[in-house]
Here is the input.
Amino acid sequence: MRANTIKILKDAMKGEYAVGAFNTFGLEITQSIVRASHKLKKPCIIQATTNAMKYAGSKVLGDIVQSVIAHESNSTQIGFHLDHGKTFDDVVNAIDAGTDSVMIDASCSEFKENCEITSRVVKYAHEKGVTVQAELGSVPYLGREEQEVDWEQIMTDPNQAKELVDRTEVDALAVGIGNAHGFFRERPVPDWERLKVIRSMIPNIPLILHGASDWTEEKVKRAVTEGITCFNIDTDIRIAFVVSMRNGLAQEYGIATTDPRKILGNARESAMNKIEEKILMFNDQ
Ligand code: G3H
Ligand code: 13P
Ligand code: ZN
Here is the structure.
């Protein structure tokens, strides 16, 4: 069933477990996420980036997500979130498409600018009953940054995190503690001490860890203990989906198969298995 993202996050904080925020771009992946969450009876968040919204059409994707939640799960709470909104217009489009929370990612801007745009988004979103995630510090991407980064320069500054929350009244914060998107080489050890300080300075704000696809169970558990409430997963779902499609085309039905439902159906199941694995890793209660 549909639930507010912020409620899902606050419940997780209270219960000392974490949730996954899983990226979708269309029907099959959305079903993988909803079915995994329904089967395990554990909450999760479905999120779409601005690129995914553009790919499918934001209103179409919004309708797909809301419809799959309504028809395929009455057992668990599922939120719908905009991931990595970059502009005010991205936020407006996502809210029009039905998200109940949005991310404004101004992490590449100067601190003052990040506060300004986050504040503007918070004012607009809160009036519509929508909550907001900001990002401070940066979580690099392979291909968009050099493979080597100066982690000390780009990780979240705890004092700024507090200032940003106080100034903007943002509801959740994506942090950088040595994590990175996709296959980017991460900091050998996450900066646990930094996370602990951030947690203590903004104790009521859910902290989000982007780039969690390659996080091991051991790291995830430690991160939950130190205060992470939500892990973002995109790459691992894409891999499960595409590898299954490739295998399907190459082996199971032969290259001449004319029924894409066979290939997409198996890919949907592979993605669902991967998502179940992640949900259990984040929340084994
Ligand atoms: O952080 C988000 C992604 O993994 C990149 O997604 O290709 O839909 O922008 P995108
Ligand atoms: P991964 O690339 O590690 O799956 O991270 C996804 C993410 O952070 C989406 O916002
Ligand atoms: Zn991300």
Notes: Residues 23, 83-84, 181-182, 210-213, 232-236 surround 1,3-dihydroxyacetonephosphate (ligand 2) (CB under 6 Å). The longest helix spans residues 260-282. The chain has twelve helices and eight strands.
